[in-house]
């Protein structure tokens, strides 16, 4: 098998259709079919179940797919490394950031980095930490900001910040005068939460599992601005990092009786290639956090 065949194979696996894959690869559909057939013949195994509308990976194809992704990522890393040896830079940092940190911790850092390195491009993706972890593993991101707990062994991390998780109410909510709140009291209230995949939702689900509590989830959304407005107007309460309430009026933070502190880290693939731009970004964040 060769790199071209693996690239064709992964594209067909993703598109589940030879015609769409050929269009994306900008080649003729018969040429793509022949290339896949030659790949199957060279390894002596069928990779796809074919029908008129869709193709699906066989068991053998499912085994090959993650290996193909890794090989293609390594080839991309090698090309980047060689380009930099010729005096070129990748010129782009692809970073994934959860919503709360992207809104309140990173803006000044990102602007400072861009001021120092005006020729480098920053591509910032907002997503939950579970999604960011997976995108790092898949090579879709260079660097990600994640909850520094249960980190996959394939990722390298460096500590970023710690922030307390607090209950958050409107300023006129009956709980707003409290100095602290128990988990049971918190879960007795109507809640607005991020959807699954965000580290603050991971925390909520973990507490519920430990204490065998069924939360009253009245609202679920990945829009931080919507969560803040719902809480401000008294329709529900939530739990957020304290750094959010430090910057938002009309909200009251209430620590939990059992304090909850989350450690946040930057992460990247342990055996992936970090470009000069990526390393410059990591160094800049570490020196300016």
The best one-word shape is globular
Sequence of strands across the biggest β-sheet: 4-3-5-10-6-9
Task: Give me the number of helical elements.
Answer: 12
End-to-end distance, in Å?
Answer: 46 Å
Mean of all residue-level pLDDT scores = 88
**Biggest sheet descriptor:** 6 strands, mixed
Got a strand count? 10
- Uncertain stretches: none
Order of helices and strands: HHHEEHEHHEHEEHEHEHEHEH
Helicity level: 40-55%
Description:
The chain has 289 residues and is of the alpha/beta class. The protein is 46% helix and 25% strand. It contains 12 helices and 10 strands. The chain has helices spanning 3-15, 18-25, 29-43, 59-85, 99-104, 107-116, 129-137, 183-188, 199-211, 224-232, 242-245, 276-288; strands at residues 48-50, 55-57, 92-97, 121-126, 143-147, 155-170, 190-193, 216-220, 238-241, 251-269. β1 (48-50) and β2 form a beta hairpin. The radius of gyration is 23 Å and the shape is globular.
Question: Could you name the key traits of this structure?
Answer:
six-stranded mixed beta sheet; 289 residues; 25% strand; two-stranded antiparallel ribbon; 10 strands; alpha/beta
Give the secondary structure arrangement, pairings included.
Layout: H1 3-15, H2 18-25, H3 29-43, E1 48-50, E2 55-57, H4 59-85, E3 92-97, H5 99-104, H6 107-116, E4 121-126, H7 129-137, E5 143-147, E6 155-170, H8 183-188, E7 190-193, H9 199-211, E8 216-220, H10 224-232, E9 238-241, H11 242-245, E10 251-269, H12 276-288
Parallel strand pairs: 3-4, 3-5, 7-8
Antiparallel strand pairs: 1-2, 5-10, 6-9, 6-10
Helix pairs in contact: 1-2, 1-3, 1-4, 2-3
């Amino acid at each position: 098998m060769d790199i071209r065949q693996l690239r064709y194979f992964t594209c067909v696996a993703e598109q589940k259709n030879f015609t769409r894959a050929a269009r994306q690869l900008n080649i003729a559909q018969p040429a793509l079919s022949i290339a896949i057939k030659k790949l199957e013949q060279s390894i002596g195994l069928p990779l796809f179940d074919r029908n008129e509308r869709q193709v699906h990976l066989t068991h053998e194809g499912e085994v090959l797919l993650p290996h193909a992704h890794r090989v293609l990522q390594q080839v991309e890393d090698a090309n980047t490394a060689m380009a930099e040896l010729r005096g070129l830079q990748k010129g782009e940092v692809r970073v994934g950031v959860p919503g709360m940190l992207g809104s309140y911790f990173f803006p000044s850092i990102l602007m400072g980095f861009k001021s120092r390195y005006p020729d480098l491009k920053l591509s910032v993706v907002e997503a939950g930490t579970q999604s960011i972890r997976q995108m790092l593993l898949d090579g879709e991101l260079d660097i990600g900001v994640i909850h520094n707990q249960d980190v996959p062994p394939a990722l390298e991390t460096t500590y970023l910040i710690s922030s307390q998780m607090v209950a958050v109410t409107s300023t006129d909510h009956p709980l707003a005068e409290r100095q602290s709140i128990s988990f049971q009291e918190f879960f007795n209230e109507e809640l607005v939460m991020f959807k699954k995949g965000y580290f603050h939702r991971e925390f909520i689900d973990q507490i519920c599992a430990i204490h065998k509590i069924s939360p009253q989830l009245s609202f679920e959304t990945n829009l931080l601005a919507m969560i803040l407005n719902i809480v401000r107007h008294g329709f529900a309460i939530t739990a957020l990092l304290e750094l959010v309430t430090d910057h938002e009026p009309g909200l009251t933070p209430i620590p939990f009786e059992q304090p909850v502190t989350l450690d946040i880290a930057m992460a990247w693939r342990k055996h992936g290639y970090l470009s000069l731009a990526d390393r410059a970004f990591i160094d800049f964040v570490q020196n300016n956090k």
